Amino acid sequence: MYQFSNLPIKDWRRLATWSLTAALLIVVAVYGGRALLAGPRGPVSLVVYAFSTQEEVLTQGIFPAFEETWEAEAGRDLTIQGVFGPSGTLAGQINLGAPADVALLSNEQHVNWLKIGRRVPADAEALVVSSTPMVIVTRPGNPAGIADYDDLARPGLRLLHADPHTSGAGDWAVLAEYGSILLESDDPAAARAQLEAIWRNVHLLAPSARATLTLFELGAGDALVTYEQDARLAQARGVPLEIVIPPRTIIAHHVVVMVDANLTAAERPAARAFVAYLASDAGQQAFIRYQLRPAGPAPGGDLRQGQLLHADFPPLLQPFSVEDLGGWSQAYTEIVEGVWQTDIEPHLKKDRLVDW
After folding, report:
1. H or E segment at 128?
2. Is 16 a domain residue?
3. Sign of the CA dihedral 188, 193, 199, 201?
4. 39 with 60, same domain?
5. Number of domains forming the structure of the chain
6. Alpha helices in 104-187 (DSSP H)
7. CATH at 73
8. DSSP, res 297
9. Residue 221 to residues 8, 83, 134, 213, 243: CA-CA distances in angstroms?
10. pLDDT, tens digit, for every residue of 40-86?
11. Which of 97, 104, 272, 278 is deepest in the core (most CB within 10 A)?
């Protein structure tokens, strides 16, 4: 049977450190005994680190189904331990020695961090396993009349935002807010101006996409930018909100990679099979049931192709990818670091970021 560690949402800075540290201690205890227990036919344990919005699909859908499939084929017991949190924070924990065997991260930049930390080979290719567009979540009835990202810059709006320092959703949202106008106008100055204007309305940062939406559910803020998947999951469980799909928005591609530095010989076949399962028809159907669009084409392909694979998803008018912004290395350096971290973050009104 699978086990998982859930991360409570209390404080946006302390959550990323203390709750993951507590989970890490538990996982380390499990990890320490695995090599002793796993013989040629003994039980196998995998530790999967995954970003916050993947908890339901993995623990309720994919983990149990894969365990059953793999045990029947391999004739060995399998236990999967899941640790969930902000994607950037998880990548940092893995680089510091956290015993993840497989990492499901919200963007390829966080895989690049694992390569820098030598937890993943430099030539490893992350596998895209699911996608979801960035959308705007508003109060029921959309009282502010928000239709596009530029509407988020209106004076008086109170916005929530996932923190780009810890959250992959925070990175994706920044790229959506910037890229939506850049790709329309081909004017970096206009894109920078829109991003700055939107962030003047940000009143609260949270460490992850899930934490941000939870704060919205509790009554904080007028709107936020998040994954379509998490917004649709919230609607399905009865959270009162409205989802606005901007005419031009970015498609977030989520990736999985084996953490080669942590895998033992006994674990490697199970880890390889798990990664393959995520991309299989069974894995893709599980992602769809939990409101993720199919992996579809790799970034840079026809982004509308994926939506045709499942009729329940609303159409996208002018989707774009991180490849349209130069790929993750360029986009992160020029937009997240070069614009948001350098020019916008230092001027955020910190007293307003913690007033809820």
Report:
1. strand 127-138
2. yes
3. negative
4. yes
5. 2
6. 108-116, 168-185
7. 3.40.190.10
8. S
9. 20, 28, 18, 10, 15
10. 568 999 999 999 999 999 999 999 999 999 999 999 999 999 999 99
11. 104
Between the alpha carbon of residue 143 and those of residues 126, 138, 222, the distances in Å are 41, 8, 9
DSSP per-residue letters across 45-61: EEEEEEEGGGHHIIIII
**Contact (Cβ atoms closer than 8 angstroms) between residue 52 and residue 84:** yes
The closest alpha carbon to 212, from 7, 9, 352, 5, belongs to 9
Judge if 333 and 220 occupy the same domain: yes
DSSP state of 316: -
Among 168, 77, 129, 349, residue whose Cα is nearest residue 257: 129
Full-model pTM: 0.86
Distance CA 117, CA 347 (A): 31
Site of tokens 């036919």: 41
pLDDT at res. 11: 42
64 torsion bin: left (phi>0), alpha (psi -120 to 50), beta (else): alpha
Please say whether the beta carbons of 198 and 148 come within 8 A: no
| CA-based nearest residue to 295, from 352, 256, 336 | 256
Closest CA to 166 of 225, 223, 110, 231: 110
309 assigned to some structural domain:
no
**Nearest to 276, CA basis, from 290, 291, 256, 248:** 256
Rounded distance, CA 353 to CA 356, Å?
A: 8
Closest CA to 331 of 198, 173, 206: 173
- Is the predicted pLDDT of residue 33 greater than 70, yes or no? no
CB 235 within 8 A of CB 226: no
User: Is residue 84 domain-shared with residue 151, that is, in the same domain?
Assistant: no
Indicate if 140 and 228 belong to the same structural domain. yes
